[in-house]
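Entry 14. Ran structure prediction on the chain below.
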Amino acid sequence: MTTNPTRHNKPAERMTLMSTYIAKHKSPTDDTTPAGFCPRCDYPINPGICPECGNHFEADQLARLPRATRRRQQIRRVAALVLIIAASIGLHRLYESRLWTRCLPTSWLFAMDPTTSWATDEILRRDIKGELSEEERLAQYHRTFAIRTSIRSPRPIGDEFAIRVSVDSMPGTPNHSIRHNIDDAQIFFDGQPVEIPDNFMLYKSNACRCRLPMQPGKHIISGSMTAELGLSDRTRPFSTYSKLAFPIEFSHEVVVEEKQLSDVVTARFDDELMASLQEQLFVSVCRVGTPHQARLSIRFDNATIPLAGEFVVRLHDLELPLLKSEVAFPPSKRATASSITFQIPQGTAPADAFFDIQFTPDLRVAFEAGSDGCFAGIIEWHGVRLGTNNGNMKCELCLPPFDWNPDVVRAWKPEETPSTP
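Output, C-alpha cells:
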C-alpha cells in the first residue's frame, strides 16, 4: 500500500501557515504588545524594521495610536473647537441683546450698583412697559437722577426772578435722554404767596420766571412744584418714554444788592464782535415731524462773548410771529447749538416758506444764565428758506443753502428789549 506524503504533510503545513498568520496579525492587546504603530503603514511593530512595509523606525518615531484612532481624535478636537467658538459668539450676542436680563427679578436689578448700565436699562424697560410698582418707579428715579433748583444770588434790583430747575444723572450712571416740565408750582417770597404767570416755564435753560419787585436785602424764596419727568433709554426711539410726576421742594436765600442790571451784566458792541458774529453765527429752518412742524436751529462757533436774548421767527412779509423764544449761549471755544420747534400755518407750501428771523439781546436772560456779559446787537436773517433734514436730527449740520449767516447786525438800543408779559 502506497502512502501519499503530501496527504500526511497537509496538517503540518496548515499549522505552519496558521502560526505565520497569527504572528503576522497578532493584536496589540496580546501579551507581546508592540511598542507602537508604523507611521507609514499603521502596522503594530516594535522599534526596528516594519515587517509590513520594510521601513526602519526608531522608538521615538513610532505612533502611539492607530491612524483611525488618531483621525477620530483630531475630528473630535476640531468639532470641540468649533462648538466652543460658536458658543462664545452666541453667548456674546445673547449678552449684547440683554434678553437674559428679562429673567432676573426686579429686586436683583435694584440691588445692583446704579452705574451698571444693563441693570438700569432693564429697570427702565420694565418701567416703560408698566411692569413696576409706583414705589419701584420712585426708587428708580431716586437712584439714577438728582433734581436741583437754584436762584442766582446776589442779584441786582429788579421786578422778577427765575428759578432754574436741573435734572442731572448721578455720577457714573448711564446717560439717558431726559425731558421734563414743571407744573403745580407754589412759590412764597418771604412767606407771602407769589402769583404764578402763564409763561412760568419760559427759558429754554429750564428756568421758571416770576414777576415780583425785589428790594435790597436778604429774602427767602421757597415753595414746591412738580417735575413731570420723561425718561427714555438711549437705545430706544425718542417716542418711547417713561413718565413720572416728581415732587420738588425748595428754599433759597437770595441777596438783592443796591445795583442795577446794567451794573452786573456788561453790554458790548463793536466792529470786531459784529464781524465775528457774521462769520460764526448760523441759523437754519427745517421741516420735522408733521407737515406743519418746523425747527429753528442755531449754531454759534467759537463764541467769545455770551449771546443771550429773544429769537422771533415770522413768515416772510407777515407781522404775526410764529415763534418767540429766549436763548442763551455761554462763552465757548467750541461750536454750541440750540434748536426750537414751532408750528407753521397750514397750507404753507415749501416753495413759499421763507422766514424772517430776528434776535434781540436781553440782559435779564444773560444774567439768569449766569453770564456777566452780553452782545448788544440786533441780528437779522431775511428770507431763510425752509429745508428738509431727511430724518437727520442734528440740524446744526445742515449744509447750504439751508445754513444762513446773518444779513444784518446793528447796534441795540435798550428800548428795543422785548417786553416781559
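The radius of gyration is 41 Å. Will compare against last week's run tomorrow.
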